[in-house]
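User:
Can I borrow your eye for a moment on a structure tokenisation matter? Would you put together a sequence-and-structure record for a protein of your own picking? Please set it down just below, with no commentary around it:
AI:
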Amino acid sequence: MLTPIRRVVTGHTKEGTAIFSSDESFETVVIPTGDAAMATIWTTAMVPADCNDETDGRNREAGTTLKGGSVIRVVDMLPNASSPMHRTNSIDYGIVISGKIELELDNGVFKIVEAGGIIVQRGTIHKWRNPSSTDVCRIVFVLVEAKPYLVNGEPLEECMIH
């Protein structure tokens, strides 16, 4: 894996003065499918977020996305690994920090995005693949719930194709 992730969280005193609430480092953890290692950095229960919610957003239960809320997580795509083809009802901002990633759509068209590139994923069916046989690709994802895309007035469903 890559270097640990440092998370610095701010908050307020009861008088409203800004403070640092936490400063910690942690590593990504390999997920059961074995294609990536992930670490949730923060979540919000709703959008817009509530700055009065004192819950540590890292500890809130969240799937790939969080219905009604938002998630930021770090994903380390392992060498030669790929995700299943999937769609979520969310707007996903993917910022490639290191390595490169192949983003494939359901029509078989794909693009390679290298470190420094940013992907805006708008509820389409897609999969991720790390084309390197040696290097981990680290991506920071921010996922915000979105209304599903409509085709002839009908919403496209979330899916995971294994």
